[in-house]
Amino acid sequence: MWRARRSIHRVTHHTIAIHHVGQVLQGAERRGVATAPLLQRAGIPEALMEAPLARVSQEQYARLLRVVQRALRVPSMEVLSYTEARTRFERDYLVGLLKITDGNVADAARLADRNRTEFYRLMQKHGLTPGLFRGDASGAE
After folding, report:
1. Which long-range contacts (CB under 8 A, 24 or more apart) does 7-13 make?
2. In a domain, 138, yes or no
3. From first to last of its 141 residues, what are the pLDDT tens digits of the chain?
4. Residue 30 and residue 6 share a domain
5. Strand pairing partners for 76?
6. Domain limits for position 18
């Protein structure tokens, strides 16, 4: 009897319950990461996820954690040309300044260390109007 308990303990002591794997994968999925490739890279058969009493080795679980961390660290973004990246940054920068200043162009230009004329040109280039950022939204199109 003692021997049987000891062997059961040995099997479960050095393994991780599959629900822990599921929790890690849920977190990755919420952040938009596909889970099947993560399992494959960690060496965990996808079919185990359907077996509630299944267990994985400590090595497989550790490998899964490393794979997930790596997947979350690498931003899944599209590769932009320099011109497109600069244009997006420029527009986002203007939008941020206009939100902070509630659509006050003079204040936004001052914060950007630019004159108002130049700031208005940039706004026009990106299709922005001050009214879009005012609290009452009176200039919204």
Report:
1. 11/55, 12/55
2. no
3. 445 444 444 555 689 999 999 999 998 898 888 999 999 999 999 999 999 999 999 999 999 999 999 888 866 556 788 999 999 999 999 999 999 999 999 999 999 999 999 999 999 999 999 999 987 554 444
4. yes
5. none
6. 2-73
